Amino acid sequence: MRNKNKEEKILQAAEAYAKEQLGNDVSGHDFWHVKRVVNLALQIAEEEKADTFICHLAALLHDVADGKLNSSEEAGLAKVEHWLLQKELEPADCQEIMAIISHISFKGGQVSNFPLSAEGKIVQDADRLDALGAIGIARAMVYSGAKGRPIYDPNLSPRENMTLEEYRSTEGTAIMHFYEKLLTLKDKMNTETAKKLAENRHAFMESYLEQFYAEWEGKR
Ligand code: ADP
Ligand code: NI
What torsion, rounded to 10 degrees, do the Cα atoms 112, 115, 118, 123 define? Predict the structure, then answer.
């Protein structure tokens, strides 16, 4: 049996930990991103009748181990595991959280074959949804600005089959990122609930691009 009080305490501690670790990161992983992923994950978990505690905790911690914020992804994961082991978490839950956060990242499109649990699929969907729609566009622009990438260059085409290094490299433009990642995410959603949310966000990005090109040509 789960102990609600204990779970509540762990969630509060994890929220404070994520806030402290992510702070005001400008690479698209600030704490408000985490808050939105938590909200989406909980909403999807309710619909899909999954374990809300696991989804909540994994969503809170999902970016703390990110390779961009740590000396390496391995070091980041070891740090989170160390933190979890200090909490009174069931060993099975600790393992489950580590399995989720080490496998949900996008990594330039390389698909991991790791079989995610239902909760892992939900947190992955929630993280991907936050890269879509109006929020996703804002994040891509902020990320590009932080990396010194221009908005658009009509002479550059999107890159295909990128390695992780190429994906992380600052070459290219913000608009290229729509084709390299954002527009591919709709078809990668795991759950029916996320698929529906993704459709709407995807359509918004397509109409944004249409308007963008029309303005670029001075047609609107
Ligand atoms: P993940 O959370 O899966 O690790 P990333 O770290 O790749 O995702 O991206 C964080 C945010 O920054 C996302 O909203 C993503 O779309 C955006 N982003 C990542 N790479 C780029 C890029 N090369 N150009 C523009 N935006 C990017
Ligand atoms: Ni994330």
Answer: -20
Distances (CA, A) of 141 to 1, 8, 67: 45, 35, 21
**Burial state string for 59-80 with b = 16 or more CB within 10 A and e = fewer than 16:** bbbbbbbbbebbeebeebbebb
Under the banding of pLDDT at 50, 70 and 90, the label for residue 29 is confident
Look up residue 111 and give its two tokens: 């698909």
Please tell me the distance between residue 131's alpha carbon and the centre of ligand 2 in angstroms: 8
- Separation CA 179–CA 174 (nearest Å): 10
112 DSSP 8-state letter: P
Structure tokens at 68: 């961009």
Residues in contact with ligand 1 (CB, 6 Å cut-off)? 28, 66, 105-106, 127, 131, 136, 139-140, 143-144, 174, 177, 181
Task: Report the mean per-residue pLDDT for the chain.
Answer: 91
